[in-house]
Design goal:
Length: 309
């Protein structure tokens, strides 16, 4: 494998979270937010649980939100050491607000952050979703917010990934229930989802993993060579990076950041059309090869779900 040298990670690939019952999750992410269900598969470590992937019409990296809907997941809560919000970019916030109001969906705002207008809402499990006006593309990610006790160590990792500090606000709130500092980092080779906000908060909240919390944040590598080059560079700054793991739709490497948040770097290829027709993504249950022999049993165990129109 040839290692390709790249100056910066271009942006987010996907964000993975934990949810409660899958039908409520689908109703919100497809019905309310207008995302497309682009893959219906199972948790590869626990095939009795779905792994649902949402994205834009093309299932493009930088738009992919994924969930493990544990039917009996206890409620989680964001706190320091966790990613606490995911943000989408939209070209026309007024239209989005009208649509949400028309559907009787509550939201916070509009408010302004770093010169851009934004609103925030919560999914059925309490995950904070922000919608930010700016950028030409609809439906892709804008940024994630990482809630931290201390910004410096995580900032160093982002800098090693080719991000630079572009803005800061010392009186930020950001849905934490307290006030703190928000610092924006942006890729120096930016594509979709190129911003990462680091924030502190004086809220007395202890994070607890569970439904409504983000499990990890995945960044993009355009190909396997870039991924290997990032793996070496991250190891060189002391990160303990996993070997490359085949996740069927991308190859993944993972590492725990000093601030407590699990990062992943995922490749663009092969993508979500590797095992089904791009026109029919997400319609059928897709299983990795090793589980095909158990399909009947798995289908019996998984809850019935219906994709909202
Ligand atoms: Zn992932």
């Amino acid at each position: 494998m040839t290692k390709t040298v790249s100056a910066a990670i271009p942006g987010l690939h996907h964000v993975t979270a934990i949810s409660g019952p899958p039908q409520d999750n689908l109703n919100f992410w497809v019905g309310t937010l207008g995302q497309r269900l682009v893959k219906r598969t199972v948790n590869f470590d626990d095939p009795g649980t779905y792994h649902l992937y949402y994205g834009d019409a093309d299932a493009a990296p930088g738009s992919i939100m994924t969930f493990f809907p544990f039917v009996d997941a206890g409620p989680g809560r964001a706190g320091a050491g966790m990613a606490s919000a995911v943000a989408y970019a939209v070209p026309d916030l007024d239209k989005r607000m009208m649509d949400l109001a028309g559907a009787a969906v509550d939201f916070e705002g509009p408010f302004e952050r770093f010169g851009e207008r934004a609103i925030a809402l919560r999914d059925p499990d309490g995950l904070r979703v922000e919608i930010i006006e700016g950028g030409a593309r609809d439906e892709g990610f804008h940024s994630v917010t990482l809630w931290l006790d201390d910004l410096a160590a995580t900032a160093n990792v982002l800098e090693a990934m080719g991000y630079e500090r572009v803005a800061d606000d010392e009186t930020a709130t950001g849905g934490t229930g307290g006030t703190g500092t928000r610092v924006r980092y942006r890729s120096t080779d930016p594509e979709r989802g190129s911003a990462v906000d680091l924030m502190t908060s004086d809220a007395r909240s202890t994070g607890r993993p569970g439904a409504g919390t983000i499990h990890h944040v995945a960044f993009r590598a355009r190909d396997a060579g870039e991924q290997l080059a990032w793996r070496e560079r991250l190891a060189a700054i002391g990160m303990r990076v996993t070997p490359v793991i085949d996740r069927q739709y991308f190859d993944a490497i993972y590492f725990q950041t000093p601030g407590g948040i699990l990062f992943e770097i995922a490749t663009d290829p092969p993508g979500f059309a590797v095992d089904e027709d791009p026109a029919h993504l997400g319609e059928a249950l897709k299983l990795p090869e090793e589980y095909e022999a158990h399909r009947a049993r798995i289908e019996q165990v998984l809850p019935q779900i219906r994709v909202p129109s």
